[in-house]
Each structure stands twice: as C-alpha cells, then as structure tokens.
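1st attempt posting a full record on here, be nice pls
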Amino acid sequence: MTQTLAQLLSGELQGVKMLKISENLTVFPREILGLADTLEVLDLSGNQLSEIPKDASRLRKLKIAFFSNNNFTKVPDSFKECENLYMLGFKANKIKTFDEDVLPLSVSWLILTDNRIESLPSSMGKLAKLRKFAVAGNQLTTLPSAMANCENLELIRLSANKLREIPSWLLALPKLGWLAFSGNPCSIGEEVGILKVARKDMEILNLLGEGASGKIFKAYSKNLDMNVALKLFKGAVTSDGYARDEMNSCVSASEHPNLIKVLAKIDEDGELGLLLELIPSDFFNLGNPPDFESCTRDTFDDKSIFTLETILAVAKAIASASTRLRSRNISHGDLYARNIVLHPDKRCYLGDFGAASFYDGTNDGYEKIEVRAFGCLLEDLLSYREVRDAKLYKVLDALRANCVSENHKERPFFKEIDCLLKEIIL
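the predicted structure (as tokens):
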C-alpha cells in the first residue's frame, strides 16, 4: 500500500512498520526519522532523491530499504549503523561511486542493478552475511578478490557488465548456486539461426504471465497458422542481462523433451520476441518466487505436497535437460521450481532463460554451481514430500547431499546424475 507525504507530515503514520511514498520527492523527508521506533520497511522508489541524511542511522529497526528509480550517484553511507538492515536496493539509479565501508555488515540482499558502477570496494569482502547480490547492467571490469570471503553468497547477477573473466574464487564459493554473467566479454555465444516473423503477423489473444524480462502472451501466428506462446521483451536490458542474450541461449538450448521448443523470433524496430510452443493450460508452476524471508529460495503453496514419484520424475527431467545444456556450454543460471511447469501426469518443462550464460566448457566450475542449484531444488521438493517409499527417499536425499556439498569438486556432474536417476525404475 502506497502512503502519501501529506499523511507523513500530519503525523497520521506514527507507529507504522512499512512506509512507501512515490511522489517525485527531491528531498528525503526528515519526518521519516520520527518513525524510528517502529519502521521496518522503507520504500522510496520512483522519486528524484539523490541523498539520504547521515542521521538515517537512527532507523535502528529498519530491515528493508528500497530506493529504485531515483537519482543517486553514489552508494550512501547513511545506513552503516543500521544493524538490522538485511535488504538494500538502489536499482536503476545513476550510481557510479561505491566507496569503502559504506554498508552495514548485516546486509544479506544487495540490489545495484542498472547503474554505472565501474568498480566494487574491497570492503564487500566484509559482508559475511551476503547471500544475494544483483549488480547486472553496470560497468564492472573486475571483481575484488576480497569477495572470496563472502562464503554465504548463494546468488549473484553479473550480466551486462564488462568482465573479461569470471575469477576462479567465485566458482569455488561453497554456497553459490545461481550465477548469471551473459552480456560480458567472457560470455559469448554464437548466433543461432531461426525463423524470423513479423510482429504485425501476430494476433495477441491474452496475457499468460509476466517475468523480470518480459510478458508472455497466448497468440496466434499467421506464419505458422497455430497458437503459440509469445514472449515480448520489455527492453534491450533486463534485470538479468540483455534480452538478445536470453534469446540466443534459449534458441541454442532447444530441441529437448523437457525444454520448451522455440519456434521463431521477432527482431524488428527495436522490438524483440520469441515464439514458443504453447504449453497446455493443465500444466502448473512447480513453485513460487522467493519472498523477503526466503531470500534465494523458492516458496511453495501452503498445501503443496509432492509424492516421491513426482519428485523423481521432476529430478529425471531436469537432470536430462541440464545435461543437454551442459553439452551446449550453457548455464541456466535460474534453476528453480518456479521456472518448471509440471503436468499432473508428471511431464515437466524447464523454462525462463533470462539468466542463462554461455561459458568456457573446459572449466567444470560452472556446471558444479548449477549442480548445487539442482541439489537445492531437490531439497526444497523433499521438504514438501509425502513419504511412502523410505528407500527411494534415502536415494534422493543422498543425491541432494552430494549436489549441495560445499566443496564444489565433490559434487557430481549432470551426466552422472542423469545416469543415476535413469537406473531408478518404479
């Protein structure tokens, strides 16, 4: 719920835990500091702010703060003493400067997507609680080696920067499971040819869904004379990277029973889109996006219960699809339940290549990161299991444990996982 500046100034909002104001503010309202005893979530996105007062540190109960789409040119140091602040976002600002020691050590989720940052401070290595770091769409050429100390980092978005290499220490981080780095010199995939159709030959029928990179519609293609799923990208750059990179990886990876088939593309007048096989409406999303508390992990409906047979079927499908991606040197980067659609008869597809990246196939580290994500997926599903076969549970749980090993060299390869699961016949 969005509140108003007038409400804040009148004192009407005393005692609130959440405050959201978007009124083209040019100055941080000092009345916010009067909410220090209760305020936990502050959202001042969509304003014209460029500074935060130094004494914002008085907001000692603050847990989450968003300042997306403002005019900040540097990461402010105003929250250094806010020891409860664990989520901080400055997406889509004009930030170029990121000084040393400006963040509270409590931060576990940091969002700096779509700015102008050229370098990160070495003090990033002090953020021992950091689990999720989004810094796509900046000007980074390197990462500070001190970040090797961020051993709790689970997800990092580095796409659309200027990185010439992914450092070996990053690939060896014990808990890293989701890595995106397309749109950098170190991730270059070959353009794959596919049928090109005109936007005017598409008839939009209805909206099916919306994600970080674009909207998906049910549409009729005159060229193909069939109904399709049409993904129209929001722009050249998304929160996960460049739309064109997503298109290329999706086309390159296709032609697998558990990957949604790509039929054609739209590429004209700055508009980008993909025509995908239309998945029947009786398929459903396996999971839901993370919330503020789960951070890097998907959430599930309260009534979600998966039989071990269903979990096995999903594991087989995703391991097989991931083996295919490995053969193309593609990292999916977003291996989550929410990006898997499942049919009641246990058929399933892996979708959403927004975070996918091409990588150097001689380096096993990229695959081992994705294997950890696969292990986390198994862990999530097994936590909602309906146990009927103790033997099968032990096999799946042992596989999970191997996949999430904090020593990446001990994790199996997808080809090995695929072979293991294929041997299990119910």
